[in-house]
Structures are given as structure tokens and as C-alpha cells.
Write a structure and sequence with these properties.
By secondary structure, the chain is mainly α. It has a domain of 86 residues. Helices cover 73% and strands 0% of the residues. The chain contains eight helices and no strands. α2 packs antiparallel against α3 and α4 packs across α6. The chain is elongated. 17% of the residues are buried.
């Protein structure tokens, strides 16, 4: 319960954390099921919170989708959270680029390539 009081967790993410402390798979699964039934554990709520957090940090939808998959969130939930966000992805990308490189346009191919790689990495 202490973990859930700090932030939202995906079911698989919380399961991995509990596996480090406890060896009983059945007991862990029962506890996770009980938390989900009581509404304390929700992959949907985690995905929405994660999209808000990462988009405000300047990351794009592809990168966020990949990270949600790594945390065990189903694709349909992750895509719904990304599509349901009120984020302007283009403005976020522009702000991240300007923060890293400044507002001046790239003057040569090398700097254009660096900016493109940066934006691709951000998703």
C-alpha cells in the first residue's frame, strides 16, 4: 500500500516490485487482484498519469507508447491514453527542440541531423 500511496503503478510494474520482496506468486497475484477490485490499482489510470507526466517533459507519443509497453500496459489502453490527452504534440516537440538547441534555425546539415536525431529519440 505504501508504494501506491506515492504514485500510480501498472499492474505488471507493481508485480515486479513485489516479486523482489516476496517469493509467493499466488499471494502476490491475489493481492494485486484485490487492489484492482477495490479500484486502487488501474492500468488505465496509470497510463493517463504517465502520458501527462512524460508529455509535459517533452516526450512524444511514440516514445511514451514504447515506455508504456515496457511497463506492461496493453496497447489499446496506452493508445487510448495518448489519444485522449489534450497535449499538442507539435508544440511540445518545438519547445523541446528550442530548449535544447535554441530558436535559431540549423545552419548546416550536421546540425539539422542532430536536431532530427534528438526529436526522433524523444518520439
Amino acid at each position: 500500500m505504501d508504494l501506491l500511496a506515492r504514485r500510480e503503478y501498472a499492474r505488471l510494474e507493481l508485480r515486479r516490485r513485489l516479486m523482489l520482496k516476496f517469493a509467493d506468486d499466488v499471494l502476490i497475484d491475489e493481492a494485486l487482484e484485490k487492489l484492482a477490485d477495490e479500484g486502487l490499482l488501474s492500468d488505465e489510470r496509470f497510463a493517463e498519469s504517465y502520458v501527462r507526466h512524460r508529455s509535459s517533459a517533452g516526450f512524444g507519443p511514440q516514445r511514451i507508447l514504447l515506455e508504456l509497453r515496457e511497463r506492461g500496459v496493453r496497447d489499446e489502453l496506452a493508445k487510448a491514453a495518448i489519444n485522449g490527452s489534450r497535449c499538442n504534440w507539435q508544440d511540445n516537440a518545438l519547445a523541446a527542440r528550442n530548449k535544447k538547441f535554441g530558436a535559431l534555425p540549423a545552419c548546416d546539415a550536421k546540425s539539422r541531423a542532430a536536431r532530427a536525431r534528438f526529436l526522433q529519440y524523444r518520439g
